Amino acid sequence: MSGLTRDEMAKRLAHDIPNGAYVNLGIGIPELVAKFVPADREFIYHTENGLLGMGPAPKEGEGDPELINAGKRQVTALPGAAYFHHADSFSMIRGGHLDLSVLGALQVSSGGDLANWSTGGPDAIPAVGGAMDLVAGVKSVYVITQHCTKNGEPKLVEACTYPLTGVGVVNRIYTDLAVIEVTSDGFQLVELSPEISFEYVQERTGAPLLPKQENAS
Amino acid sequence: MLHKQIASTKEAVADVFDGATVMIGGFGEAGSPIELIHALIDHGATNLTVINNNTGSGEVGLAALIKAHRVSKMICSYPRTANSTVFPKLYHDNEIELELVPQGTLAERIRAGGSGIPAFYTPTSVGTPLGEGKEVREIKGRNYVLEYGLTADFSLIKARKADTHGNLLYNKTARNFSPLMAMAGKTTVAQVQHIVQAGELDPETIITPGIFVQRVIEVDEPLLESALVAAGETYP
């Protein structure tokens, strides 16, 4: 049993974003979501360094080093785009104007706590960027991540051991093995990846997983 | 006649004093006033507290200022970036202090400081290590941390175009922190690619009104941090 690839995870998440949503994509796997917008929908991408209407990377030689995304890579501005300063950008974030934030994770707890900015190690240079603002203010927070670490440790846990980004902020988790909703009762299975069993996911999850509710969407 | 144009970058930073707090615009290289930073290195002011989102890359611009041991404290949100080696080394050697601030809180602290707001409550960082030790207040059933406004003795920023009154227009995502830092700096110096006479800019399009800008200096072809780093350049 292998589960979804990164691209397939991103495609699965993109399927759940409604038409017209204002979306902030974090660095890494979240960036892949932009490749899989369903044909009948339009999402407006926000990048916290000051652009709404972010488009893909420019063609070779056509970029502007002053038109970049939060990962400091060159991007383009689509028709209808707008530039703004950082206070406006984070007013959009904290003020609840963005519909969805898609983030990577080191750990997510069954209560929806997120740890994604620091391992807390003595040699780590702490760096947080906009992650704490995003989880504090955006209407929905979706995490997209491998279900386990490279060493096979669960990333979905009872309580995070890494420093927190936010408390009780994650709504949904998209992994290579499953889609999981964070509810007041803990992790609730929404969907298993093809050929993946409930037991297989539970064994790799560090907290109880509630089975799928058959009548739920 | 009001005329804020300064002849040289040297003159533009000549009164930066030891121990000053200096805000430097830019998000990575986008909006980094690299010529003003290099002039500040030449000028020699030291023991500076610098406020910027990052800590520079390679050994040019902000990274060069840090490497020259002119900065005793950085206030920033993301001190590690690709090609960022200078700050991590000094930080590990305990030769530079770091105040880590969430990016949106950093922006709002600068806006507040420049707007006469001494402090504000924000939901960002509640229940995390960056909220520890801060005053928490429950407002309408939700917890918020108290954050203080930031001001600076000098703000060094980059813009695309200015007029002689200091009204500014920016380039794309290079705008980032600069309009906020312009408000929060006692003396704000803007390096711009093109300066026109007052009256030539459409008042409807101005992003930073000139009241927030004390000096403008024309640098028509600014250096690019990434190009310098790729070429292995160092400063001085």
Question: Secondary-structure blueprint of this entry?
Answer:
The complex is a heterodimer of chains A (217) and B (236).
Chain A (H helix, E strand, L loop, with lengths): L5 H10 L6 E4 L3 H4 L11 E4 L3 E5 L20 E8 L2 H9 L5 E4 L3 E3 L4 E2 L15 H7 L2 E5 L11 E2 L14 E3 L3 E6 L2 E7 L5 H6 L5 E2 L7
Parallel strand pairs in A: 1-2, 1-5, 5-8, 6-9, 8-10, 12-13
Antiparallel strand pairs in A: 2-3, 3-4, 6-7, 10-11, 11-12
Helix pairs in contact in A: 3-4
Chain B lengths: L4 E2 L2 H4 L8 E4 L9 H10 L4 E4 L9 H7 L3 E6 L9 H7 L4 E4 L2 H12 L4 E4 L13 E4 L2 E7 L3 E12 L4 E2 L8 H7 E12 L18 E4 L6 H6 L6
Parallel strand pairs in B: 1-12, 2-3, 2-9, 3-4, 4-5, 9-11, 11-12
Antiparallel strand pairs in B: 6-8, 7-8, 9-10
| Main sheet summary of chain A | 10 strands, mixed
CATH topology of chain A: Glutaconate Coenzyme A-transferase
Describe the global form of chain B: globular
Secondary-structure-based class of chain B equals alpha/beta
**Residue-averaged pLDDT of chain A, rounded?**
95
Provide a short characterization of the protein structure.
By secondary structure, chain A is α/β, with parallel strands linked by helices.
What attributes does this structure have?
heterodimer, A: 217 residues, alpha/beta, Glutaconate Coenzyme A-transferase, three-stranded mixed beta sheet, B: 236 residues, nine-stranded mixed beta sheet, 7 helices, globular
Please explain how this structure is put together.
The complex is a heterodimer of chains A (217) and B (236). With 217 residues, chain A is an alpha/beta fold. Helix content of chain A is 17%, strand content 25%. In chain A, a hairpin with a 3-residue loop joins strand 10 and strand 11. In chain A, helix 3 packs across helix 4. Chain A is globular, with a radius of gyration of 17 Å. Chain B has a single domain, classed as 3-Layer(aba) Sandwich (Glutaconate Coenzyme A-transferase), CATH 3.40.1080. In chain B, 22% of the residues lie in helices and 28% in strands. Chain B starts with a strand and ends in a 6-residue tail after the last helix. The mean pLDDT of chain B is 97. Chain A binds chain B through residues 47-51, 64-68, 72, 77, 83-87, 89-90, 93-94, 118, 120, 123, 125-133, 136-137, 163-167, and chain B through 27-31, 77-82, 87-88, 91-92, 98, 100-108, 110-111, 122-130, 170-180, 207, 224, 226.
